[in-house]
Design brief:
Elements: E1 8-14, E2 18-25, H1 59-69, E3 73-79, E4 83-91, H2 97-100, H3 105-119, H4 129-136, H5 142-145, E5 150-154, H6 158-168, E6 173-177, H7 180-190, E7 194-198, H8 206-214, E8 224-228, H9 233-242, E9 246-249, H10 254-280, H11 283-289, H12 299-314, H13 323-329, H14 334-345, H15 349-366, H16 371-377, H17 383-394, H18 398-404
């Protein structure tokens, strides 16, 4: 039968001893090698990561567990290009006073706990993510809670995307994308602080999205959490090797997602704190601290920062070399460069340029250059303004700094 005119037939047969339910479709069928595994949790016949529909592989597993709880049995038969038949057989027991009794609260709790341990799932009634996360986060600062942070949710299933938004919206500004392609475009334009993405999506799957984000200077600093029903270690490693910062299997506990996002934000804070310490110290003190506090940046982030330093070094004595010029050299807009440096270091692009010039000035002063010569060499056309900024940074004048320090190379 043509797939556009297929049929689903449901039959029920009842006897004194059992109820038999049969569901038959005229779909594409299931291959024999897949049929023994369709009731396994997270197993999916279509394992492609860019398929045009959503699934987590828990539906049939949950049905089987529910049938077993009723002492029933479920079986499946299928033929390719013919269809599939599911049969559920449930025993019929005579009604008794005890079976009709309403469970006490204690019994209900025991039953719920037993069901949860059996299926590994958490029903909406068992968990209020907003209430629980509120109690969990009591006492955290606004920064740790992420009130000023934005999260991009990339998920093609409308219901799951809405649910994730309900979990995260009390703590973050939320952006949404329905697939990886739209997620990539939104990330490039909005540059969110965090990205939560599904693995299996149409047009651009989660792995391809990660590759696109990591290969783009505008977005390669954004932490990514990947959600997927694929729990095998090889799938987790594939996601992490592609550039995902964390990996969470479905179905997930909402509090765990919140905690993982908080940890990623704290890591970003640690990176910013690292740069703030380095930029606040005189050169020699910063070098002395470096062996004890290694650079926390990833290889991509280090490459990005070093490329900016190399560009600034090339135009060091050009006073007109500004934020727009630096952004253009990195194939970015000045807006995106500002947002990225603010996220990465906690400073603006203008502050980044000025700080680099002043650090290089410290090097030149240690070689014996005069303050005026140094000012022009590092791109300041006003020596008085240079001296004022230098003293604000190092707490001493350029002349005093040159007299007190011996020549030593600076590692940027």
């Amino acid at each position: 039968m043509h797939p556009d005119r297929g049929q689903i037939r449901v039959e029920a047969r009842y006897s004194a001893r059992q109820l038999t339910l049969t569901v038959t479709d005229t779909g594409t069928g299931i291959a024999p090698e897949h049929l023994p595994y369709i009731f396994d949790r997270f197993y999916q016949v279509d394992a492609s990561q860019r398929r045009g529909y959503e699934g987590t592989g828990v539906g049939l597993a949950l049905v089987r567990e529910l049938v077993r709880l009723l002492d029933g049995e479920i079986t499946a038969n299928s033929q390719l290009e013919v269809g599939t038949t599911m049969t559920v057989v449930l025993p019929i027991r005579p009604a008794t006073k005890s079976s009709l009794a309403v469970p006490s609260p204690a019994n209900r709790l025991t039953t719920e706990s037993s069901d949860q341990s059996t299926t590994g799932l958490i029903s909406p009634g068992q968990f209020d993510p907003v209430e629980r996360s509120g109690r969990m986060n009591a006492g955290l600062s606004d920064l740790e809670m992420g009130h000023q942070s934005s999260v991009l949710i990339v998920e093609d299933n409308d219901d799951l995307r809405t649910y994730i938004r309900s979990v995260l919206s009390p703590h973050y500004r939320i952006l949404e994308a329905v697939d990886g392609l739209q997620g990539r475009d939104i990330a490039q334009q909005a540059m969110p602080d965090l990205i939560v993405t599904d693995l299996m999506m149409p047009r651009l799957d989660g792995l391809e999205l990660c590759r696109a984000l990591r290969s783009d200077n505008r977005t390669n600093h954004i932490p990514v959490v990947m959600l997927t029903a694929k729990a095998a270690i090889e799938n987790r490693l594939e996601g992490l090797e592609t550039g995902a910062d964390d990996y969470l299997t479905k179905p997930f506990v909402p509090v765990e997602l919140i905690v993982r996002l908080q940890n990623l934000l704290r890591r970003q804070e640690n990176i910013r704190a690292y740069f703030q310490r380095q930029l606040a110290l005189p050169i020699q003190e910063r070098q002395a601290e470096a062996p004890e506090k290694p650079n926390p940046l990833t290889e991509q982030q280090q490459f990005f920062v070093k490329s900016l330093y190399a560009t600034l070094e090339q135009y060091l004595d050009h006073p007109e070399f500004d934020v727009d010029a630096l952004a253009a050299a990195g194939s970015m807009s000045s807006r995106n460069l500002n947002r990225k440096l603010n996220t990465l270091m906690g400073i603006t692009a203008n502050e980044f340029i000025r700080t680099y010039r002043l650090r290089r000035a410290a090097d030149l002063l240690r070689t014996g250059l005069t303050p005026t010569e140094t000012a022009y060499r590092v791109g300041f056309d006003n020596p008085s303004y240079f001296s004022r900024l230098f003293k604000e940074t190092f707490t001493v004048t350029p002349s005093e700094y040159g007299k007190k320090n011996t020549s030593a190379p600076t590692d940027f």
